[in-house]
Amino acid sequence: MEQGLDFHTALALLDWQVELGADEAITDAPINRYDVVPEPAPIAAPAPLPTFTPGAPPPLAEGPDPVEHATTLAAHAQTLEDLRDAIAAFDLCDLKKGARNLVFADGTPRARVMILGEAPGRDEDMEGRPFVGRAGQLLDRMLAAIGLSRTSPDPETAVYITNVLPWRPPQNRDPTDDEIAMMLPFVKRQIALAAPDILVLMGNTPCAAILGRRGILRLRGQWQQSLGLPVLPMTHPAYLLRTPQAKREAWADLLSLKARLTAPK
Q1: pLDDT, tens digit, for every residue of 203-250?
Q2: Which range of residues forms the domain containing residue 85?
Q3: How many domains does the chain have?
Q4: What confidence tens digit (pLDDT) does each residue in 161-184 have?
Q5: Pseudo-torsion of CA 121, 91, 164, 191, nearest 10°?
Q6: Which one of 5, 61, 179, 237 has the largest count of C-beta atoms within 10 Å of its C-beta?
Q7: What is the CATH number of the domain that holds 161?
């Protein structure tokens, strides 16, 4: 627009250009309309979101299989001390994060009797030993009644004691099937290294782990065979503290254990 061109003159010039057929503004430089204009790059489709069922837990990230890893660690343990170190190095069980101590074992290795319990409670977690507190004291009295002791150095009268789980579950809840499965390779290796003559299963959890069955009140007192050993299910001392009338059956089981120990080989 020239200097000094007023509004009305500019408007008249614009109207005149429209009458001549000018219908769009153009730039100072000419444009070749025959040039091929490149198509815009296609926009990548977003990655599909993971599907899930409402109320179901989110999918877990892939990682090492806990059972396979536990099996590998257990197989390399040549002594009970090696096995304890292997369990301490096992980081795939979440119970370890909330426990005070690893509860491995008590008593005398190579004892004729090995007792397998369920999981540490509050007292066991604090002391790092299985079967302490009121339940442990009752167990010691039960064993003493048939001439056995966890403190005896003689394998004939000693016991070796451990649990299926080495770490305390929160609020003493029952162990889950997944927790039992991932710790079972360690339990089997511990039994093999301790080499008892008889295995006593105290409670539902060891029966589920070793026999694949639950229902301790039906199983108790009935001799089974597993891992090449005679196996005796018994009620847990903690249950006997809650249900004193069950002590009669527990005494019968102890007498059955004593008879098995004193039977001619």
Answers
A1: 999 999 999 999 999 999 999 999 999 999 999 999 999 999 999 999
A2: 66-262
A3: 1
A4: 999 999 999 999 999 999 999 999
A5: -140
A6: 237
A7: 3.40.470.10
